[in-house]
Amino acid sequence: MKSSDAELQGRCRELITRTERLQPGVRKTAGVGVDVPAMMCNPELKKEFEALATSGKIDELLKRDYDWLTYAFDGLLSDEKPVVLGSLQFIHGMIRNRSLPDATSPLAKEKPDIRKYRSVESRAEEYTFWAQWWYTVKARTLVAEWAKEPCAGTEDWEEALRSLRGGWADGKEKERYDRIRSFGKSAYPYLVKYIDFEDTAVGNTAVTVLRALTERQGKDQVTAATKAAIKAEWTRWLDSQN
Asked: d(Cα 120, Cα 45) in Å, to the nearest integer?
């Protein structure tokens, strides 16, 4: 992990994640159904959630976060590491997409690190926070509105950026830009993600839209040689906003 070779670091990180063991028994430790409320999960839908989460299809789940969030909360109670990791990734994405103002969970700022959730205590604490949040009128009302509102996680970003390459002064392009603007800050991570896209025209459009939304100045052009550095700079800026 101390190697200067980024690829070697990545492989080591993957090995550590794969071999990390979780302490079992978190559901009992958390006192689910006694000290904290349980999530009322449909068994068949729970299997579907776990299948999608463990196969890395988090973005697909986030398109219907209002349907899946209780399954992600329940997933924190699993003794299976892939289920826990997928649930953590879902919750992190949900917070970022929805800009939840009351999310005091560490997942609001940090990308999930399974090593921090090895113990039953750490997972029980995370579950307790979300269980208490979910069973409030404010949370239920908020989530009920999500299905009616545009969400950054449901946008086809590649298609959107290709459509905006020539600008967005009027017509369908302006409607598309206005839709992206309506996402607020939750659009920023998706735009940053596409800066180093294989098609540099898409990357340049992502930067142009980011500048328009954030009013940040800059003239750097995205090329095959510069896209990594430009993405890294925008990533640092994005992290500084949290």
From this structure: 25
- More reliable by pLDDT, 185 or 234: 234
Inter-axis angle of helices 81-98 and 43-54, to 10 degrees? 90
Candidates 198, 200, 194, 205; CA nearest to 162 is 205
Residue 114: domain span: 6-146
Check whether residue 217 and residue 235 sit in a common domain: yes
Asked, for residue 1, whether it belongs to a domain, the answer is no
| 40 located within any domain | yes
Query: 94 and 65 in contact (C-beta within 8 Å)?
Result: yes
Q: At residue 225, what are phi and psi to the nearest 5 degrees?
A: -85, -25
pLDDT at position 19 over 70: no
- Asked whether residue 201 falls in the same domain as residue 136, the answer is no
The answer to whether residues 220 and 159 belong to one domain is yes
| Chain centroid offset of residue 208 CA | 23
125 and 164 share a domain? no
Stated pTM of the model: 0.64
C-alpha distances out from residue 173 to 32, 35, 161, 222, Å: 49, 52, 10, 22
Nearest to 130 by CA among 143, 118, 119, 144: 143
